[in-house]
Structures are given as structure tokens and as C-alpha cells.
Amino acid sequence: MPVFHTKTIQMILEPVAEQVSTLVLIHEQGKDGNQMPDLINPILTVKAAVSNLVKVGKDQIKDTKDEILKLDTPPALEKVETSADMLVQASQLLSIDQKRETAEMTPEGMEGRKKLIAGSRGILQGTSDLLLVFDEAEVRRICKVCRNVRDYLNQSSIVAGMEDLVVFVKSLTPGTTTLARMIGDRCKDLTNQNHVAALTEEMDQVKAYIPGLISSLKAFVQTVDKPGKAQEAAIGNREYYTTQISERITEIIRLLQLVSTDDANTD
Amino acid sequence: EQILEAAKSIATATTALVKAASAAQKELV
Predict the structure, then answer these.
(1) Please, which residues bridge with residue A190 across strands?
(2) Which chain A residues contact residue B8 at CB under 8 A?
(3) Measured at the alpha carbon of residue A88, what is the angle toward residues A84 and A93, in degrees to the nearest 5?
(4) Among A14, A39, A115, A239, which is least packed by CB within 10 angstroms?
(5) Residue B29's pLDDT is what?
(6) Of A16, A39, A60, which has the smallest distance from its Cβ to B11's Cβ?
(7) How much is the ipTM here?
(8) Which of A13, A44, A63, A134 to mutate to test the interface with B (most CBs of B within 10 A)?
(9) If you average pLDDT over every residue of chain A, what do you get?
């Protein structure tokens, strides 16, 4: 059974993966000599669902600004479409085999079974590819928010008065709140619990460092006209907190891009 | 969301198809 990257993908694909495995097993054990039932109706249902997916997929990439999504979606859609066509061919071949009068399978029956398995596997693989393409787009969306927050931290160096500080905090807070929510949602969906633990830890550290950053900025504002040790300490603290938060966000970006099997790279 | 719904429909339809094919073969086992 494949390892699914997210619970959403797992929930969608696991039942079909199980059924395809069963069919493959029956075929490999040579136990699929029975005449197949008429599969044209279920195959037409699959074909209609594929047509809908292709339409939805094409609509989604038409509107997106994500160039990678635009590039990666068509091959996955093509794989699903080709596989659906293979299922139709399978049903035509199997209908010839249904007319046989002996226990022995016809060449069409054998070919039809092969196409049925290849088509079902292709649908599974193509749908999986497509879901992963969209999942990667979602990861890029979260990474963009990460980079925006990380870039905004540079503004801390120009905070010189109380008014600047208020603007800085007012601008930083929505970004970090959005980021925390997105990371929380992502953690709920990931299947690799090592990645979840690492992401949660990094995000908790970001949240823990923010009050320290604000305090250091406040201390700098209070000493802005009084150069000396207190001001130096405030600058040192500001640099420490911005560096820490920035590094934690960089690590979050790295962790978000890992796939479910990348366990060795968690540390 | 639309992609997820469309993918769910494919998965459901393919599961039903493969299940029907397997069931017919299992009768022989």
C-alpha cells in the first residue's frame, strides 16, 4: 500500500488503492478466469467523473498565478484521461470474452483484464499525482506567508518611536496569526507525525519569541535618544529575537516541503 | 475544494468498478 502524504489524500485514495491491490492479487494468482460481469456502466461512471475532474482541473489552473501548478497539472490530468480510455477498451474486450462458451479465457479476456488493471492503477496514480500537485501548491502558499512574515521582521530595525512600534506590531500580528493557523491546519492533515512534531515545535518557538522581540523594540524606543549600554542591550536583544524567529521560519519552510517518507531529514 | 470533490468522485467510481470486477473473480476462488 502506498504511503499517503496527507490525511485528506489518504481518505480519498486508500479505499481505491485497497480494491486495486485486491484485483491485482487475484490476477497475479491466476484466479481471474471467471467471465467478468458487464462493466460498461461502472466504467462510464468513472469516465464521467474523470471528465469532471479534467474540467475542474483546467478551470483551476486557468485562474491561478502559481506557474508550477499550471505546468504540473496537465500531465496528471492526461494520465487520468488516458487511463479512463484504457478502461473503456477493457470493457470492449471483456464484452467479447463474455460471449465465450468454454471455461477457457479468450485472448480478448486476458487483454481486457490487463487493461482493466492498468487503467485502474493509472486512475489511482493520476489522481494521486493531481492531488499531490495541488497539495504542493498549498505548501507554496503557506511558504509565501512564511517568507512575508520573515521579510517583515527586517522592518524592526527601523522602529525608532512608539508610533513605529505600534505600526510594526499591528502589521506583524495578522501575519503571525495567519501563519500559526495555517501551520496548525497543516499539522492536522499531515500523516508523518515526526514532521508534525517538528513543525509544531518550530511554530511554538516563533510564538514564544515574539513578546521578546516586542519588548526589545520597546526598550530601544525608550533609549533612542540615550546612547549607551541600555540601548546596546536593546539592539542586541532585537537582533537576537529577529534572528531566532527568522531561523525558525526558515526551518518551517524546509519542513513544509518534506514529503511523508523524508524521515531522515526531520532533524 | 473542487479538486478534492472531483477526486473523491473518481475514487468512489473506481472503487465500485474494481470491487465489481474482483467480486466476479472471487466466486471462482
Answers:
(1) A6
(2) 12
(3) 140
(4) A239
(5) 41
(6) A16
(7) 0.86
(8) A13
(9) 90
